[in-house]
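Predict the holo structure. Ligand: C2E.
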Amino acid sequence: YAGLQRGARFAVYDIAADRTSRENLALVGEVLDSIREEQFILHYQPKLNLANGKIEGVEALVRWQHPVRGMVPPGDFIPQVESTDLILPLSRWVIEAAIRQQAEWHASGLKLTMAVNLSVTNLYDESLLKDVRALLKAYGLRAESLEFEVTESAIMADPVRALEALRAVRDLGIHLSIDDFGTGYSSLSYLHEIPADIVKIDRSFVTRMNDNEKVGRIVESTIALSHYLNMAVVAEGVSNRRHLDTVAAYGCDAAQGFLIARPMEASAIEDWLKKADWPRPEDTASIGP
Ligand code: C2E
Ligand code: MG
Ligand code: MG
Ligand code: MG
């Protein structure tokens, strides 16, 4: 009887999960129309420089303002879109919108770096880099102010091919970040070959590092290892004061997370930067914005 009950519960759960994935899959067919109808929007999450307490840049994070489903987070459609070629037009939209916003900020004196998340499929789209170069030129931006974030697992899915594509990005001068580092079954034999400028330590490590000594040591030594390999380190998911103090003590270069700020619309970023009241590591608190 208990087994039956358990079975029944699983059945209900499966139906719900299946409906969600079917609904999310149905979204994929709407991507092209939705780009045309301007239903996508970028929010921006600030990145705090831990050495000087300043906001050095932002990461663009896409959202879908769906007429029926409301604000849909990227986790509900990016994985599905990524499994199709529609990730090409969507990423192009994201890149251009981010570059346009960055140019607007630069023109008004806000010199922020801009990070854009890319799928591994985008790396194999040879015309993308050409178009990005043209966009940077058209908007008068230096390649070095742009950053592409690619997840470690995407790189490791086909490291030989990915590394070649990453080198082409690097050759252009665009900075590269390994996103969600630590979750991608990375092999130490590839780490030194990835031509990245930045390692972003996944939120799951930051969340656990103060409760689990070994996780703390992993974060600390990942920071040291990245530095030895000439990469800067960003801690993701810094959501309380202790997270911030710990990663700062470990020598981390920058931090992102809800403690500092949630992702915001462009206009909200501008207001927030003016207030300059984000938390800073102790020894930079006196430096000011
Ligand atoms: P990501 O690139 O690792 O971005 C960080 C995610 O963690 C964001 O979720 C952000 O809102 C969230 N986050 C930041 N700080 C905290 C924190 O302190 N606590 C918690 N709980 N969460 C935090 P979001 O915006 O839902 O994006 C999820 C993922 O979707 C991104 O992970 C990225 O992999 C993907 N994504 C977002 N925008 C794009 C895009 O334009 N293109 C592609 N290909 N992927 C995107
Ligand atoms: Mg990212
Ligand atoms: Mg990440
Ligand atoms: Mg992530």
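The chain has a mean pLDDT of 92. Strands lie at 40-49, 55-66, 70-72, 113-117, 146-151, 175-181, 198-201, 232-235, 254-255.
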